[in-house]
Amino acid sequence: MSEPVPPDESPAPPPDAPPTPLPEPEPFVLGVDLDGVCGDYTAAFRAVVAAELGVEPATLGAQESWDFTEWGVAPGQFDRFHRAAVLEHRIFRSMAPLPGAADVLWRLSDAGIWVRVITHRLCVNWGHAIAVADTVDWLDRAGIPYRDICFLGRKPEVEADAYVDDGPHNVEALRAKDNDVIVFDQPYNRHLEGPRAEGWAEVEELVSGLAAARGTPLQGQFPGFDDPGRRLDHRLGR
Predict the structure, then answer these.
(1) How far is residue 232's CA from residue 145's CA, in Å, rounded to a whole number?
(2) Taking the mean position of all CA atoms in its chain, how far away is CA 221?
(3) Which is catalytic among the residues 16, 33, 140, 178?
(4) Which of 4, 33, 65, 128 is deepest in the core (most CB within 10 A)?
(5) Is 33 a catalytic residue?
């Protein structure tokens, strides 16, 4: 014969007690790359390579490959040019933001998306302080929102629900771990399968769809922010 179950001895809540709040849903975390996704690394690096080679930037043409060999960057020489770009030309502070990045990321952030910047910028020895400081300064001046930032190359080790990246090796490594990755369209990644975004408007649509598919409730845009990409400027009176 089974033992009798003792009655629940916990006191009943008073009739006027407020209802127990439901736990907050886990946020949808979006991992966002910077170079070639939020910032125009190609244009900034073109100016550096042209200066180092003593030619006009327009003579270098469009970037077609990941390692810039079409610009006369010999195999194994990228690190030298990149080091000059970061430490001497300070492109992490000066590169132009890509159109729509700030506006879309503000809308996604306001809707409840957790924006996590993930970038492999600590690859220049003895230049980490410059790389980090210039990156944070650039993010503020470009008006790009983020909740946290990760400086690392092994992106599959970062916990995010979806990623936006242009680097073929990053996309392949993330997908090998069954991550959802949106390919930010560039000439050097056209061999990769989609989902693919040819601009930030398409990123917004794809991310919203992924969040909805996972049951993440998204809020509407906060009223009163006609220019969300410059919200930090408004706050600082710039």
Answers:
(1) 9
(2) 20
(3) 33
(4) 33
(5) yes
What one-letter code names the amino acid at 74? A
Catalytic annotation present for 35: yes
78 exposure class (CB count in 10 Å sphere: 0-12, 13-18, 19+)? middle
Burial letters for 136-145: b for 16+ Cβ neighbours within 10 Å, e otherwise?
A: eebbeebbbb
Are the CB atoms for 149 and 158 separated by under 8 Å? no
Q: What is the pLDDT of residues 22-67, one digit of tens each?
A: 556 688 999 999 999 999 999 999 999 999 999 999 999 889 988 8
Owner of token pair 């996590």: 116
Candidates 35, 103, 165, 180; catalytic one? 35
Which element (helix H / strand E) includes 211? Answer: helix 200-213
Cα(231)–Cα(140) distance, integer angstroms: 10
Phi-psi region of 112 (alpha: psi -120 to 50; beta: other; left: phi over 0): left
Distance CA 156, CA 150 (A): 12
Alpha-carbon span 156 to 173, nearest angstrom:
7
Contact, 39 vs 93, CB < 8 A?
A: no
CA geometry: angle 217, 193, 113, nearest 5 deg: 20
